[in-house]
């Protein structure tokens, strides 16, 4: 059994001190009745923390009933009006809550007049209802905004984790897809050469070992958040992969000024595009170019392979996400071989 929900702190208990005014202000000969009314008031107080929405108005009505029953004989009953006034902020946000509080104050004034309360008792009921009711409306709104901020922060953390998982998945796809394709090609070449040119086969196997070690380092770097060793390094690896597949390379690369993020996007796009050429194009020539074109930096990878319509898989979609994230454009034309063109504003 709990008196308060878990999200409430100890200050909720402190507000019970105002019931002492009602308990001590009543006539001594009616103390048992006063004590019983205090017990009912305590029950209403804690109950109000467990219910939500317009149902809280039932507690407000109960406070009013208690106040009107005891106000003629106990001036401390005005405390019940104040407790009721503090509940509007729990139900509504400030604009609506203040309108209800204004109506509450008017009802308190009318009740005090109808019950013949003196001016001091009436004034205290009205003033403290308005004052503490306003404070609690603002307090409830701050708590509400704080809860929303916590929820938004938790959502942002969740989205950041999802984005990081997607980043790692895209990078691992690009890194391993390209590298494993090269390893397969070199392993097949070494297998063919093992009988006729054992020295050349051994050299290819050493290349496989070197590439595997580089892939391991790249995977570790991707997990840490570093996506690429740079465009020059990717271009060197692209040449190596294409030549291992028996595809001639024609490269024309300028070196426009690129930020680290832009260079990483171009480098990974080159890696993915070359991997697709090696795997699917059946090409004999691949042309690579990187140049400044007006306010854009443009990367183009073209081959003389089979072209056609290619379903956009995870590699190409991941490439498109990176490019569009920089405000760029990715275009693919498969009418005569395949041309992949990427433009990013710089």
Radius of gyration: 38 Å
Number of strands: 5
The N- to C-terminal Cα distance equals 64 Å
How many DSSP helices? 12
Largest sheet: 5 strands, mixed
What's the gist of this structure?
With 346 residues, the chain is an alpha+beta fold. The protein has twelve helices and five strands.
Write the layout of secondary structure elements.
Elements: H1 11-14, H2 19-25, H3 31-47, H4 56-70, H5 78-85, H6 88-91, H7 94-114, H8 119-193, H9 198-224, H10 231-244, E1 248-253, H11 260-281, E2 285-293, E3 296-303, H12 314-325, E4 329-333, E5 338-345
Parallel strand pairs: 1-2
Antiparallel strand pairs: 2-3, 3-5, 4-5
Defining traits:
346 residues; alpha+beta; Heat Shock Protein 90; 2 domains; 5-stranded mixed beta sheet
Descriptive account of the structure:
With 346 residues, the protein is of the alpha+beta class. The chain is 65% helix and 10% strand. The chain is built from twelve helices and five strands. β2 (285-293) and β3 (296-303) form a beta hairpin. α10 runs parallel beside α11. The chain is rod-shaped, with a radius of gyration of 38 Å. It starts with 10 loop residues before the first helix and ends with a strand.
């Amino acid at each position: 059994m709990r008196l308060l929900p878990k999200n409430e702190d100890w200050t909720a208990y402190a507000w019970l001190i105002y019931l002492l005014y009602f308990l001590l202000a009543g006539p001594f000969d009616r103390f048992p009745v006063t004590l019983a009314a205090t017990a009912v008031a305590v029950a209403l107080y804690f109950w109000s923390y467990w219910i939500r929405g317009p149902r809280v108005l039932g507690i407000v009505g109960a406070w009013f009933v208690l106040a009107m029953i005891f106000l003629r004989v106990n001036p401390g009953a005005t405390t019940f009006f104040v407790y009721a006034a503090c509940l509007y902020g729990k139900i509504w946000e400030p604009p609506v809550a203040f309108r209800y509080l204004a109506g509450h104050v008017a009802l308190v004034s009318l009740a005090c007049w109808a019950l013949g309360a003196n001016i001091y008792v009436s004034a205290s009921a009205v003033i403290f209802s308005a004052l503490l009711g306003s404070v609690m409306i603002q307090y409830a709104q701050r708590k509400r905004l704080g809860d929303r901020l916590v929820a938004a922060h938790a959502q942002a953390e969740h989205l950041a984790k999802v984005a990081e998982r997607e980043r790692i998945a895209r990078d691992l796809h690009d890194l391993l897809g390209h590298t494993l394709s090269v390893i397969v090609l070199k392993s097949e070449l070494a297998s063919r050469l093992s009988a006729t040119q054992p020295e050349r086969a051994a050299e290819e196997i050493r290349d496989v070992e070197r590439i595997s070690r580089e892939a391991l380092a790249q995977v570790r770097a991707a997990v840490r958040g570093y996506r690429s060793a740079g465009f020059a390094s990717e271009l060197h690896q692209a040449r190596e992969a294409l030549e291992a597949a028996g595809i001639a390379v024609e490269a024309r690369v300028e070196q426009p000024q690129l930020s680290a993020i832009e260079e990483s996007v171009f480098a990974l796009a080159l890696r993915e595009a070359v991997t697709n050429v090696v795997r699917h194009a059946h090409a004999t020539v691949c042309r690579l170019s990187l140049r400044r074109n007006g306010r854009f930096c443009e990367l183009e990878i073209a081959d003389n392979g089979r072209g056609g319509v290619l379903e956009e898989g995870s590699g190409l979609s991941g490439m498109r996400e990176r490019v569009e994230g920089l405000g760029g454009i990715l275009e693919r034309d498969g009418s005569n071989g395949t041309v992949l063109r990427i433009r990013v504003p710089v």
